Amino acid sequence: MEHIANHLAALNFYIDSGVDEVIGTTPVDRFAESQTAPAALAAGVRAAAPSSALSLAPGRPAVGPGATPAAIPMPPRTEAEATARALAAGAADLPALRQVMENFDLCPLKKTAANTVFGTGNPAARIMLIGEAPGADEDRQGLPFVGVSGQLLDRMLASIGLDRGSVYITNMLAWRPPGNRKPTVEETTMCLPFIRRHIELVAPRILVFVGGTSASILLQRSDGITRIRGRWFEYPPEGVSNIAGEAARPAMPIFHPAYLLRQPALKRLAWIDLLAIKARLKDIT
Ligand code: URA
C-alpha cells in the first residue's frame, strides 16, 4: 500500500508543478535539440510528432520524443478579449459578474483550475485589495488569499485594524496558473475586462494592489514593485475609460505577502505603506 501512496504523492506533486500531460516514454536530449533547432527553423521546417506520440488530453495536439512541447491552445486573442469585454460590460452586479466568469471558457487557465476564485470579504468595503492569481490552496477552496501568504495578509490587515469584514479581496486572475507560474500577457489581457468591471461594481474608495502584477497591469506601469510601492496613483490611469465619468480613485501598490515571506527585511517598508493606507482611510468617511 505504501508504494501506491508514494506514487500518488508523486503524481500530486507533478500536478501541482503544472505537469498535466504525458509527453513520451523515451528521454529527449533538449540540449542537442536546441543546437539543431535554429537551422531547422531557418529552413522553415517544423518538427513533426511521431505517430507513437502520447497525449492524455483528448482534442489536444499529440506530442512525443523530438517534438516541440505543445503549447496550451490559445483562442484568438481578440476573440477572447472581446468576448470577456462584452460579458463583463453586461454584468449588472457582482453575482452576475461571477456567473459570466464561471461560464467563460476561453481562458486556458480555467481548464486546469479546480475553481473560479471570484472574491471574498465585504463588497461594500471602502477598500479593495487585488492580488495576482490563486495559488493551490485558493484553487482548492475557491477563495482568494487563504494559504500561507493569505495568512500573512490577514496579519498585515489586522495591524491597521482591518479584517475580511472590512475589506474586499480579489485577484487579477480568477484561475490558478498551473504550478503557480507567472500569468502570460495573453492571459492577463483577456481577463482584464473582468477585473475592471469587478472594481467598478465594488466601487471602493481606495484600491490596494497586492504585488507587482496587479499594480503594473492595472496602472499600466512598466516599473517594478520596489519603485512603485507605497506611492499613491490614480485608478484608472489616464487614458483608460472609466464608467460613466466616475472620478478616479486612489490606488497604492504594496509588496506581496509571498514576497515578504521570502524577504522578511522588507516588512519594515510594508509597515510604512500600511500606515499610509490607514491614514488615507481615516480621511475617508
Ligand atoms: N497570491 C495571490 O496573489 N493571490 C492569492 O489569492 C493567493 C496568493
Helix and strand arrangement:
Elements: H1 2-16, H2 30-42, H3 77-89, H4 94-103, H5 109-112, E1 120-121, E2 127-131, H6 136-141, H7 148-159, E3 168-171, H8 185-202, E4 206-210, H9 212-219, H10 225-228, E5 233-235, E6 249-254, H11 257-262, H12 267-283
Parallel strand pairs: 2-3, 2-4, 4-6
Antiparallel strand pairs: 1-3, 5-6
Helix pairs in contact: 3-8
The structure holds uracil.
What descriptive keywords fit this protein?
alpha/beta; Uracil-DNA Glycosylase, subunit E; six-stranded mixed beta sheet; 6 strands; globular; binds uracil
Short synopsis of the structure:
The chain has helices at 2-16, 30-42, 77-89, 94-103, 109-112, 136-141, 148-159, 185-202, 212-219, 225-228, 257-262, 267-283; strands at 120-121, 127-131, 168-171, 206-210, 233-235, 249-254. The chain is of the alpha/beta class and 285 residues long.
Description:
By secondary structure, the protein is of the alpha/beta class. The protein has one domain: Uracil-DNA glycosylase-like domain (Uracil-DNA Glycosylase, subunit E), CATH 3.40.470. Helices cover 44% and strands 9% of the residues. The chain is built from 12 helices and 6 strands. The protein has helices at residues 2-16, 30-42, 77-89, 94-103, 109-112, 136-141, 148-159, 185-202, 212-219, 225-228, 257-262, 267-283, and strands spanning 120-121, 127-131, 168-171, 206-210, 233-235, 249-254. Helix 3 runs parallel beside helix 8 (185-202). The structure holds uracil. Uracil is lined by residues 131-135, 138, 144-145, 147, 149-150, 171, 211, 258.
